[in-house]
Specification:
With about 400 residues, this protein is α+β, with helices and mostly antiparallel strands. About 35% of the residues lie in helices and about 25% in strands. It contains twelve helices and 20 strands. The strands form four sheets. Strands 1, 2, 8, 9, 10, 11, 19 and 20 form an eight-stranded mixed β-sheet that branches. A hairpin with a 2-residue loop joins strand 5 and strand 6. Helix 1 packs parallel to helix 4, helix 1 packs parallel to helix 8 and helix 8 runs antiparallel to helix 9. It is globular, with a radius of gyration of 22 Å. The model has no long low-confidence stretch (mean pLDDT about 95). The structure holds flavin-adenine dinucleotide. The site of flavin-adenine dinucleotide has 35 residues, from helix 1, strand 9 and helix 8.
């Protein structure tokens, strides 16, 4: 017999969407349980970017100063190289936000910070090593999830279940929500190389015929992403590690003296890229947000931002009704109506870049003549504010409208 617990809202997945939503709901006085299948937040690289809009939310929540005390790097501009052509892609210094930079911070630090804040509220419960395997479906509605824990099976009964379990969402599959596949032409190999005094400080994106290389300054090391054509990992392996090291050295000359640090394939984590979205984000008693509702391409590095924005909108719309115990379909529809447009528009822009730039570069057939848009960005610095706004703030930015029960009770 499975053990059973009751909660008002069960959030499946402790990624950026799930942890931000759990924190906001607990802060607003909702009894909420977040379940996360891993034992901690340390795992393969999933994006380390905290955007100006997320930092703005932190300010609205009164936690920005503490957050910025955590070790991080600040990127005020994003630079790139296309063949031999160098350019600045985005300039965040003119954004109408408190922080005019993207903060680069390991995602586990961000998630641990949110967990620590959320645990200060009595309604918050975080169950690690708890993996949702199925939904509790009464026929009339979803009434929670079935999960595996180290102590055996657990039923978590909830008024509302929210799938924040990412691109390979179990929740959306169990709910049989229809997925529209959009697809991506690439996968990414992640690894790290040491960073030495005198190395450049900036984030770099290098486009070479056949591959794209990204290097993110992480203080004492470089987080490196090597973008390959989808499904071509076997070919990379076949060419061998020395050839891979040569490619990396050729992508960023400053790293040539340390590519030998890549001693074995298991230092390199392949990440499959998916781009898709749900037709309907909800069923009675169930909602999906973040990558579970719309898996984002890494293009522009905006998926975490969208996941966080989804969480804020969800809390704004649902915290009050959840506190009083009733959430009907019309409220769930309002969440989708609020967030579907930004997700669709962002995916459309990502697919445009995938089709018009990435496919050509990865195909290796490109003559590496820089696209007109890159030349314009180089000639007219003002134009760099447009990608900065799209990446740094995004479409339809959200603001925290939920109360803080701690403040309310002492006021
Ligand atoms: C290669 C690559 C690089 C990227 N780089 C960036 C970047 O630099 N910046 C950026 O903004 N975005 C980036 N993205 C996109 C970003 O990773 C996602 O959009 C974002 O993480 C989505 O957040 P989420 O909370 O919805 O889902 P996720 O971050 O995927 O979190 C889902 C969580 O649910 C947990 N989980 C899954 N299944 C279960 C289950 N059954 N039970 C319990 N828990 C479960 C997982 O362990 C995970 O913790 C990148 C994506 C890829 C593929």
């Amino acid at each position: 017999m499975a053990k059973s617990i009751d909660t008002r809202c069960c959030i499946v997945g402790g990624g950026p969407a799930g942890m931000m939503l759990g924190y906001l709901l607990a802060r607003a006085g909702v009894d909420v349980t977040v379940i996360e299948k891993h034992g901690d937040f340390f795992r393969d690289f999933r994006g380390d970017t905290i955007h100006p809009s997320t930092l703005e939310l932190m300010h609205e929540l009164g936690i920005l100063d503490d957050f910025l005390k955590l070790p991080h790097q600040q990127a005020r501009q994003l630079h790139g190289q296309y063949g031999d052509f160098t350019f600045t892609l985005a300039d965040f210094s003119h954004l109408p936000t408190r922080c005019k930079f993207v903060a680069f911070m390991p995602q586990w630090d961000f998630l641990n910070f949110l967990a620590d804040r959320a645990k200060r509220y009595p309604g918050f419960r975080l169950l690690m090593q708890t993996e949702a395997t199925d939904l509790i479906d009464t026929g009339a509605a979803i009434a929670g999830v079935r999960a595996n824990t180290p102590d055996g099976p657990l039923d978590i009964r909830a008024v509302l279940t929210i799938g924040c379990d990412g691109r390979h969402s179990t929740v959306r599959a169990s709910a049989r929500l229809r997925v529209e596949e959009i697809g991506a032409p690439m996968d990414v190999l992640w690894f790290s190389l040491s960073r030495k005094p005198g190395d450049p400080a900036d984030v770099m994106g290098v486009f070479k015929a056949g591959h794209i290389f990204i290097a993110i300054n992480r203080g004492d090391y470089w987080q490196c992403g090597y973008v390959i054509p989808k499904g071509s990992i076997d070919q990379v392996h076949l060419r061998g590690l020395p050839a891979f090291r040569t490619d990396v050295a050729g992508s960023m000359a400053v790293l040539a003296d340390r590519v030998d640090e890549i001693a074995a394939w298991d230092q390199i984590k392949p990440l499959t890229v998916a781009v898709d979205r749900l037709e309907s984000w909800y069923r009675r008693g169930l909602l999906c947000i973040g990558d579970a509702a719309h898996a984002m391409s890494p293009v522009g590095g905006v998926g975490i931002n969208l996941a966080v924005q989804d969480a804020v909108a969800t809390a704004n719309i649902l915290a009050g009704p959840l506190r009083s115990g009733a959430v009907d379909d019309s409220l769930l529809r309002r969440v989708q109506e609020r967030r579907e447009f930004p997700a669709r528009m962002t995916q459309r822009a990502q697919v445009m870049v995938q089709n018009n730039v990435i496919t050509g570069v990865l195909g290796g057939k490109s003559d590496m003549k820089p696209p007109l848009v890159l030349k314009l960005l180089k000639c007219f610095p003002m134009l760099r504010r447009i990608p900065a706004r799209l990446v740094g703030i995004g479409i339809r930015p959200e603001h925290v409208r939920t109360p803080d029960v701690a403040t309310a009770s002492t006021a």
